[in-house]
Write a structure and sequence with these properties.
Layout (H helix, E strand, L loop, with lengths): L1 H20 L18 H8 L5 E6 L4 E8 L13 E5 L18 H7 L3 E4 L10 E2 L16 H20 L4 E6 L1 H12 L7 E7 L11 H6 L3 H11 L3 E2 L4 H11 L6 H12 L11 H7 L4 E2 H13 L9 H8 L16 E5 L8 H9 L4 E6 L9 H4 L3 H15 L2
Helix pairs in contact: 4-5, 7-11, 8-10
Length: 409
């Protein structure tokens, strides 16, 4: 088993090197702002006939984030006063997660059709949010990537939520997040507890906070080497993990399309990440999924998760003994004060999720003071990625999420 993990670790490093060397300039949207990167989310929403708005917000530490608003559709016209639903993606992904499955299946569209004003967030560093008032993400030496999911929760979510509420005139909204979209929420709600009153209900899809029991071979492989990985990346000047680029997209299209003999290999790579559930993966959709993900992230986001797996704690980034003393006043980083999370939270989990183990979700639940409850997906094979890409996510999950949101209106 140790040799297997070592092989996966070496392969991961090799992939990072190849992808990093293949970065090419990104094309641009045909708008007046030539700094706005090409966006898969916009292409999908407009193709599917839903109304779309694009918004930018600048965080307190200078990151310029792109959000997308779907205020209505021909079947449910735009009108004032709709209740707001804010959706946040997971690690290495983007807002496209919530529309890529198409009308009748994707959560964003189902919410719009149910009468909600839907806003899609994008974390710093992904393909939609690669701008900063000072730092260049593509520079060889840059501070742009000096963040983990802590900063996404502490700065990005508050900025996007405040903008959304100010723009719509509401004082609170519904929140749904997948994977890292749940992690960052718990960072925000515990370290900036005033934001709890701005949340009508929170729906954690495959919640990730405590991680000591996860089964993903990728995380289990590199977690023991996380300190060495962090040092190597720093020495090489590599701060971005798996950036999106044209070579990755073309590779996904050629190798994973319906006619390709390698399509099943592509499917199994996805299963190795989140768990095996073949009936729920639309293989025809794999090239589009790989156009969306990986969408870019910082190395520190991966490192922070690995630290959580190693420590068994949900706590802030570990900078090492000296920097921890300077930043936190202690040799170890502090745990997130989850008792401060007072927003109503529903935890949606599954038995076959390799990244959000049932026991870890239950541990999270025990720390929440205002939980709506624990809700298991009835499909015993439901995996981590099925929460956003599963063929039957509507019937297994989304109908329940929307009914809970309706209850808290």
């Amino acid at each position: 088993m140790a040799n297997h993990y070592h092989a996966v670790f070496v392969l991961t490093i090799a992939v990072i090197g190849m992808v990093g060397a293949a970065v090419v300039p990104r094309s641009l949207l045909p708008t007046g702002d030539t700094n706005v990167p090409m966006n898969l989310t916009a292409d999908i929403v407009l193709r599917d006939g839903y109304y779309l708005e694009q918004h930018q917000v600048t965080t307190a530490d200078g990151y310029i984030l792109t959000m997308f608003r779907i205020p209505g559709s021909p079947a449910n016209p735009v009108r004032q006063g709709k209740n707001v639903a804010f959706l946040m993606h997971g690690l290495l992904s983007s807002s496209a997660d919530y529309v890529i499955s198409g009308p009748g299946r994707a959560l964003a569209y189902l919410l719009v059709d149910a009468g909600y004003d839907v806003w899609l967030g994008n974390a710093r560093g992904n393909t939609n949010s690669r701008r900063h008032i000072f730092h260049d993400p593509d520079a060889r030496s840059t501070n742009f990537w000096d963040f983990s999911w802590h900063e996404i929760g502490y700065f990005d979510l508050p900025a996007m939520i405040d903008y959304t509420l100010a723009y719509t005139g509401h004082t609170s909204l519904h929140y749904a997040g997948h994977s890292q979209g749940t992690t960052s929420f718990f960072v925000m709600a515990s370290t900036r507890p005033d934001y709890n009153k701005k949340i009508r209900s929170m729906h954690a899809l495959a919640p990730v906070a405590f991680m000591s029991n996860l089964r993903s071979p990728f995380v289990r492989a590199f977690a023991p080497f996380v300190n060495q990985l962090e040092w190597i990346m720093s020495m090489l000047g590599v701060n971005e993990f798996l950036p999106s680029n044209e070579m990755m997209i073309l590779g996904g299209q050629r190798l994973c399309e319906d006619e390709s003999p390698f399509q099943e290999v592509c499917a199994n790579v996805l299963f190795l990440i989140g768990g095996f559930n073949s009936p729920q993966l639309n293989r025809t959709m794999i090239p589009a999924l790989l156009e969306n993900a990986p969408a870019g992230a910082s190395v520190n986001q991966l490192v922070h998760y690995a630290q959580g797996y190693n420590s068994g704690r949900f706590r802030q980034y570990d900078f090492g003994l000296t920097l921890n003393l300077i930043r936190y006043g202690s040799v170890r980083p502090p745990d997130y004060p989850l008792h401060r999370v007072t927003a109503p939270v529903a935890l949606h989990f599954s038995d076959n999720d390799w990244l959000a183990a049932v026991s870890d979700v239950r541990e999270l639940h025990s720390h929440l003071s205002n939980s709506i409850g624990l809700f298991r997906v009835s499909d015993p094979r439901w995996n981590h990625l099925d929460f956003v890409w599963g063929i039957d996510a509507n019937t297994f999950l989304y109908e329940r999420v929307i009914s809970f949101m309706d209850r808290f209106n």
